[in-house]
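ESCALATION

Customer reports they have been waiting on this structure for their group meeting. Please prioritize. Original submission:
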Amino acid sequence: MRKLFLFIVVMTSMSAHAGDPEVGKALATACTACHGPEGISSNPVWPNLAGQHAAYLAIALKAYRDGRRVDPLMSPMARRLSDQDIANLAAYFSSLPASP
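Update from on-call: job pushed to the front of the queue and completed.
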């Protein structure tokens, strides 16, 4: 039940902070070192972001930013992101074609 509540809260907040893929593309330059210029990683250690659901990406980034999810590379990167930055990045990566 808690997961459903969290999902509803995130989905509601996503609609309040609609992302702009063009702004997200500009923000994504730091992401491309690991996740690839088109959101497709060349290293299996780092996930592909292209084609992921925007809500999933936003949940993951907020969890890294807020310390609920910890990774030595992602946590410091996400810590500097605002809610709007996260919405923009999520909109950008979700707009890219997924890897086959």
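Sent to customer with the following note: DSSP finds six helices and no strands in the chain.
Escalation resolved.
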